[in-house]
Structures are given as structure tokens and as C-alpha cells.
């Protein structure tokens, strides 16, 4: 397996495009993306667990039930959520794209991201669609990644190549993140393509396995969005023998998917709203991975921990505090905490208590852009990782007046 | 019932003092408080549910088991938490105070608040105790309130007078709050005194009832502290017939306790770290009070909701989002949201969707210092309230470098 360029258009048989259609006032910001598979693709998807669900989520979930997908249409700027005619508008988006592409409406997935509770100008989207379809290209993955951005400061794309059944296959992905990010059994918007031949059942299994340890272990601000969605398409153009069960082929596919999704999640964390630092929290020696994830996410969700990292302050007491209110039981007197970055390693807490360390070295380590917290629980053999970022003035600035 | 001055020394038979003993470098900041009952007092207490518990919490819980208390000794600056000799030091604090006061060590409650994971200079506390005991006074409640402050910008005290069994009784309280505030079945530090005669069992019942709807409905930053503690003393000096069961006397006591604790909680919320606005979230028409509290606390915990209030932005979609991920099931299409302040009332969301409203009026309403969010669920008859504040640049500033 190796990383490759091209995002969602890296795999064979996918084209994409991204344009400014007019949802956003800023004409230099693309706001409409389309990803198309040239042939039928098996599809797996996971959606937000928020009780308040975006209209596009409901429509896409219904459309994807048959397990087939030809296109994903996504706008940024307005979330099409909490509007009485939202479902109707999401259906209109899908129907308009389906007509231009000559596919069934139920083969089109739709997604929206942006402000909740504002009316979606579906006529503006419909008017932009002919241009969008005209610009579809096997090199269009990047434009699509740009078009789905909201407060993201850069587009998120990743792709990998791997061998399966003697054939070369690829997986590519794009995503948007930044704020309202605390995925729960689903995620912010992420669209993943593959030319691997794999059954719907195995595709679904791979997606759920990988989402559990990547997107679902990401925390920006603890707010689980109403519009979270990950869609994975596989169109079989790599011409490998279809993967229909466990075995080396499935493992190769899952490993490549994990690699691509982990890359995307790291980009999402590093580009969290207002973030100046990328944080990884590794829990080692926990009883099981489920409780390890709860511990890691509790630490990555703590406003006090996040602000301490912003200030490059080795305030490990806040980390113990966040472990302690996670809901997981453990013996605090067995916990060690250390920090790692390009500037070095430092142990700051041993057996749940203070240990002498150089504040100067700690400051240097915590002043780097990428920091790993390692927490040794000494309770068992399992491990877990959560991904996050610091809490900064800019997070407050960005969200103090997002709508205007 | 009427509010009165005097905080914890408002009830008969209580003296208090607060001094600078030297835990803090800033000599103008008091850092040691003592509250003494002139006779034995029944005691009820609730403590943090964090797995990582401060040493003073463990010692006080043990001491208070017999149901009797004569004194509360509390320092600010260092939390005496996550230190191997923390319990020993907390015991030393209690013993030193007990000796000077001529009471049993187990009749002394101790508490500490401040940085976690730094050694408590118990010798400095012991050296300051004679002065502290010498300054004990029936007017000393305010000094004690000042001495327990950390990043609080003003002391929190409240007291009320009520009639019970034909006698006049009082309840007084102080508290410290500001950060690491998300009480769970207990709270930040709050010390409450009363001269009412009431049995230990009824005292405990009243405290648990009132804490459930006051301290436990307060959110500053979602971090449940390791050192949360509420202690309620009742010394019987009002000479009413002891309250030993339900009835009008118990109801009068509980109503006065609720009034005092609600006042304290409002002060704690308004003075949350970096806060510029006091927020109350009222859930109406929910299925039961328990689910109502979960909904209200979810809204008050959301970083996105809190930053929107900082920016006076009527971004009601974030409120629906936070209700949606609270874990409580409901029909989003029945939800109304309105804002209220001294500048007026405004409905911003009806039946889970947008409604036309004046952005200009909304801005004026949200620019006030005290704002009430009212959320009508239309699911039942119950109500609940949570208390909180906005998330600001100053929260990030204060917590980016708290230790130094």
C-alpha cells in the first residue's frame, strides 16, 4: 500500500467537479461539489446520531437503502436543516442532478453543510448544475474538496493504492470539518471512493470498522453535528475478483481504507476551528478499546486541557481530571502521563502524582505544532487513540459571529 | 422568607475569618478561610463524582461520617490533589485547626482549591492558623468568601431568614467557582451554615434535593472538578423544635435553602471564567425533570452555543443541535426557541424551523448581560433550568496559562 494523489478521483471510473454556484456571497469560494461514478457503485454510509437530523441526511439514507450509488451532490454555506421544506429541497437537488446525469434519482446522494435554519436556495443549485456537470473530470477531486469547505482553512483529501487479488486498486477520500465536530457513530461530511470490487455487506463492514477508530475518535468542540455523513462508494473498476468475505483481500481493502481515513482525520483535527496545534491522545494499558476511546475522547474534549495546550502549559492535573469524569473507572494512582513532539519527550505525571520535570523542556515540547499525549493506565493490555486540537482565541472569534 | 446580609455568619452561633497565609505569592490575595460553629452542628455533604478525588475530599468525607461538624478549613491556590502525601497533609490541616479550636480532629472538614499536582505547603497553613483563629468573628463571613476565591472576580455569598416553628432561623452560604465547573451530584466548593435545628437525616435530604436543582444544573466549561464539595451545617441555635420529618417546618427550611443556593449558583454562573454574560436555559414542556435537565445542560455546555451568545448572534440552529445530541429523544418539529432579556422577548425558532424575526431586535436582546433562553419541547408538562455563561476570549486567556 502506498499513498497517491488525486483524492476522490484517484480510483478508476470516478469524475468530480466543484464550482461557485451562488449560495455563498463570496464569489471566489466554491460552494457546490459533484462526485460521479461512471458505472453503478456499491455504497455504504453512516449518518449522524443527533436527534435533529439534516434533511439531506434523511433523503440520502432513504436513497442509499438499495445499496447502489452513482453520484454525490453536496453544497456548502447552508445546512438545509430545521426547515419545513428541507426534505423536498433535498429531493429536488437529487432529481436535478439525476436528470442531467441520466441516472435514477435514488442513485444520487445529497449532502449540505453550513448554517442551520436558513432556507436553501435550491433554484440557485439547479441553475448551477449544468456547469458543474460540464466540468466533471477525472482530475476534479481537488475542486470538489474545496467546494465542500466551510470554515476549513484547507481542503482535506487523501488516497492510497493497494494490491487486491493480483490487481491494483485505489481508495480516495475528501472531507470537510472544522467546527461542530464530535462524530458519534458517523461523522462530518466525508466522501470516499474506491475502484475495488467489494460486496455491499463487506463494504459496510469495512466502513463501520474504520469509522469507529478514525472519525468517531475525533473531537474538535464536542458538538455532534446534525448533518454528519460518511459515504463510501466502490465501483469495481479495478477488476479484482469481488471481495465477498473475510480473508487477505478484505484485509488489504480495510487496511487501505484505514490509512486513507486516518490521514483525513488528522487533517480535520489539525484544521479544527481556530486550532494552532494538532493533538493525539494515546491511551495505553486500558482494560478494553471501548473504555480507552472514552478516556481519550474525554481528554480531547476538555476545554481546560485544550486551552492549556494552546498556552503550552504542562498542566497535567487537568488531564487526570478529564480522565476522572469520563465515566470509566480506574485507579488514579497507576496513571502516568507524558508528552511527545519534535522537540522531545517528557514524563510529567507518574503513579497519578507529580514528578520533577524541566518546565523549560516541557514548554519547548508543547510549543510544537504536533503533540502526542501518552497516558499509561496500567489497567490492562488495550490501546486507543483520539484526535483533536487546542482551544484558542480564534475558535471564539470564528464562532462568536458565524452567521454574518 | 427574606434575603439578609452576612453570608455564612448570618445564622446565629457561627464565626468565620479569611487571611493571607502565604500559599499564594500575591500578598493581597487571602488564601485561607475558616468557618466555625460555636456548638456541635449536624452536617450533610455531597462530593465530586470524579474518579480522581482531591485528598481533602477523601479526608472530609471520612470525618463527616459521624454527622457532626465544628469547623471548615479551606485554602485556595493549590488543590492538594494527585499528590502521594495529600491525605496526610489534609489530616494535618484538620488536626492543627482542631487543636487550636479545642475540638476533635474528626469534627473538622477540610477543603482545597487551585492547581492540581503541586505540593501543598501545610507548614505555611499551620503557621497561619493562630492568626486565622484569632480573627474569627460573627462578621467574618465575607473574608472567608474572599479567601476561597481562585479565578473568581468577586466573592459569592447569600443568606436568607425564615420562620420555622415560630422561631426565626437563617441559612447562609459562600462558594467559589469560575472554572472546572460542571458539578455532578456535588459541586465546586460551597459552605452553607444554618442555625435551624434539623436532624441529620432531614438535613441530608434537603441538601440532596436542593443540590439537584441548583449546583448540579450549573455548567461553566463542562469539566467536573476533582475537588467539588458542598457542606451544610445546622447548629440549632435558632431554638426551633428540631425538624425530624416532612411537614411545614421542613418545607420552610428547604425553601430557604433553595433560595440561598439558587442565588449562589446565579453568581457562580455570571462569574464563570472569562464570562461577559449570564445565561439561564429554561426547558418547558419536557417529559420529566430529569430529561429536562439533561437537555438544558447540553445546551449550556455547547461551546458553539456559548460563543454565539458571546457574539450576540441569534444562531438558534446550534441550540437545536445541542438538544439533539443530548441523548434525550424528542420530536424536533415541536420545538420553539425564544430569547428574553431586559431589552425584550423574541421568538427565533418555531416548530423546529425558522421563523421571521428582527435581527436588530435579537441583537439588542442578546447584547444584555443577563439572558434567558426558553425552549418549549411540547412533549409533556415538566420543566427544568440550567445556569451558565458565554465562552469568550478571556476564558482562553485565563486557562491558556493558569499555572504561572
Structure description:
Chains A, B: It catalyses: N(2)-acetyl-L-ornithine + L-glutamate = N-acetyl-L-glutamate + L-ornithine; L-glutamate + acetyl-CoA = N-acetyl-L-glutamate + CoA + H(+). Chain A has 404 residues and is α+β, with helices and mostly antiparallel strands. Chain A has two domains: 2-269, 4-Layer Sandwich (L-amino peptidase D-ALA esterase/amidase); 278-400, Ubiquitin-like (UB roll), CATH 3.10.20. Helices cover 32% and strands 28% of the residues of chain A. The first copy, chain A, has helices at residues 55-63, 86-101, 122-134, 141-147, 200-213, 248-270, 289-301, 303-310, 316-324, 359-366, 393-400; strands at 2-3, 14-19, 32-47, 68-78, 108-115, 156-164, 167-175, 189-194, 229-234, 278-286, 336-341, 344-350, 353-354, 370-376, 382-389. In chain A, strands 1, 2, 3, 4, 5, 6, 7, 8 and 9 form a nine-stranded mixed β-sheet that branches. The radius of gyration of chain A is 21 Å and the shape is globular. The N and C termini of chain A lie far apart (45 Å). At the A-B interface, α8, α9, β13 and α11 of A face α8, α9, β13 and α11 of B.
